[in-house]
Every structure is written in structure tokens, then in C-alpha cells.
Amino acid sequence: MKKILLPTDFSENSLNAIRYAVQLYKDQKCNFILLNTYTPVIYHVQYMEVGAAQFGLLDALKEKSQNGLKSVQETIEKEFPNPKHFFSRISAFNMLISEIEQLYEENTMDMIIMGTQGASGLQEVLFGSNMVHVLKNSKCPLLAVPSDYSYQHPHEILFPSDYGVNFEERHVEDLKQIASLFAARVNILHVSNADELSPSQEANKQKLTTLLKGTSHLFHIVQHHDVGTAIQEFQSQSRIDFLTMLNNKHSFFENLFFGSKVKHIGLHLNTPFLIIPAKI
Fold this sequence. Notes:
The chain is α/β, with parallel strands linked by helices. The protein has nine helices and ten strands. A ten-stranded mixed beta sheet has the order 3-2-1-4-5-10-9-6-7-8, with helices on both faces. InterPro entries: Universal_stress_UspA, UspA.
């Protein structure tokens, strides 16, 4: 049974991501873990040493969190009744990243699905601050769902790669599963200024070809000096409705999403985006 963690801050954006998750995996047996973390607005090391008033605040926050999770579960089960789906709820007095790391170590989930924007909803930001922290630290695949994205089946999946990774089965496992569920095609896009691949790139490409055997896929190469622009142009021209990348430290992924052009591509991120850690 697939174990999917669904962090929520009870914003409409996070609820939209949960709706996407249950529709994407409607034909798959899943255990969905709804997670809400809470801390006082002012949270510091000495917090647990202070008086009863603060503990009263903590109780109120806990109750609000638990009631919010119950409400979310009831809403989703009413909208999308599915005997293949099971829900559990975690309300934690913790920071989101710390809680996710702990849950991962306890083998609670094998995927995270969450909305790109938090309660603040700042449109000029690629990801909400929570998403950025989770993205940088997550050891399991993370599926980011854009704000206000209306669900549709994935048909054309874009997988940009610089072929700088020695591909393993776990790198493409979720990608292949989603492609299989919807008979979708995987478009592997290589953006380069060079005329030819290096020997190591060619070897990695061949490894990827082997791993994708049985999955509909096409290889594309685009000559362009800017990876972000090339990805955007390919997306718009090819009717891409799902994007996935490997998060390889010190790779073009990190430069693309945490470099100076982060807002440039962020404003055009209009499809669900699966980020897979290259290393665990």
C-alpha cells in the first residue's frame, strides 16, 4: 500500500493539493497521512519553562490542529469516497521539517504531496517557505501541486535531465507508476550547448533507456543557453501536464531552482511537479 504524507496548514491551497492526491491515486490502494504541525507564534528554547498561560495556549493550538485535520478528512472522504483509500491524522507540536524528518526515519511515508503556496499565498514566490525547506531536505519524492491547479490526468510528462546522474530504479519508480496509471508518455529533455554527450552522459542516458523499458518515452535535445527558458518553451509547445526532476545536489536542478533565476521559472510553474531526491 502506498504511503503518502499530506502536510496541511488548512489553507485552500493545501486542500487543493490533497484533492489532487486522492484523484491521482484513485485506482491505487493508499494510506494518506494528514499532517499538521503547530508551534506558538513566538517559539524559543525556553518555551517549556514558562507558566500556565502558555500551556493554555498550547492546548488551544493542539485542539485547533486536531479539529482542523478531522474536518479536512471528512471533507475529502465526502467528496471522494474510495474504498481503496485509508486516512490517518498526525497533529504535532513541532516544526514541519523536523516532523517530516522524524516521520521519514520511522518509515511513515514513501511520498509527500503538498501545495506550492502556504496560507500567505504570495504569488511572486516560487514555493512557500515550508515548501522550500521540505524540498531542500526531503529524502523521499515530493509532489508539488500549484495553487488553483484543476485536476487532470497526466498525459505528457516532462523529465528534464543533464544526464549527470547514474540512474537507479528508485529514481524512476514513481515516474513509471504514474505513467502506467494513465498511459502517459515521458518526454526526456536534455538542454545543452554542446554538440555531443560526454561518455559518462551517454552511459547514463543508456541506463535510463533500460530503466524506462516498457514505459512510453521519447528523448529530446534542445540547443539553448538557458535551461529554465528551454524547459518553459518545451512545456508550452508540447502540452506538458506533469513535470518531474531529480534533485541532485550541485546539479542544474539546484542552480535552476535555488539560483538567481528562481522567480523567472517560478512564475511559470503551472503543472504538478514531482521532485525525486537523487541521493538518500
